[in-house]
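Structure ticket #2291
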Amino acid sequence: MEDTWCDSLIGDWDNFSRPTGDSNCRYEMNDMRFRSDYILCLDLSLETDSLESTALKMKYYKKAAAMVMKYADIYNNNELGNALPKQDMEGMQLQKSEAEKSGGFYTFHSERAGNKQYAEEADPMKRMLVWMLYLNDIPEGEGETEFLYQKLRLQPKKGDLVIWPAMFTHTHRGNPVYTKDKFILTGWLSWPEQKFGVGL
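Resolution: structure written out below.
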C-alpha cells in the first residue's frame, strides 16, 4: 500500500465517529490484562455514524478491499475465491498501540476466538484468513507480530500487508512498543454462508 494512503488513514484517526454503548467496536483503551491498545471499528453499519464519517470509512474500505482481493488473484482457486467477496469481509479495525503505555497485544492467541458478547455479533469460528496492514514503520526490536509455532517475528514496515490462516496453527501476538506509537488496519475473511439442499 502507498505510504501516502497509510499516512492519510493515521491522520484521519480523530475524524471518525466514536460509537457509544457496550460494543466490541468502540473507541476506548482496552482494560484487559492481556492487551493495551485502542480499537476504532471502521464497520460501515454503525448507527452512530454521521454521513461524513460513513463516507470517510467507505473511502478506506474500498481501497483496503481491493488490496486484499489481490491476494485472491495470486492464489486463485474456487475454494478461496468463494470466501473473498466483499460481504464476507468481517469488518475492519483501525488499531493504535501507544508507546507511552507500552501498548500491544501481549498474549498469544488465534483469530478463531472471541468472548461471548462478541460471538453474538460475529462468528469467529467462520474466520478463514486474517489480514493486517502496517500503517507506519516501527523501530527494530519492538512492535513485532510474533508467530509462536513458526518462530517468526515480523517487523512492522509501512505499507506491508500480512495475511495468514485464522486457525490455532498461526497463534500470534503483538509485541509492545516503547518509543513510537504503532498503527495497523486489520480485518478478517470469513467462510461464506453454506446453503444445503433439502430432501436429498
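Closing remark: Strands lie at 35-36, 38-41, 89-97, 104-109, 127-134, 145-147, 152-154, 161-165, 172-174, 182-190.
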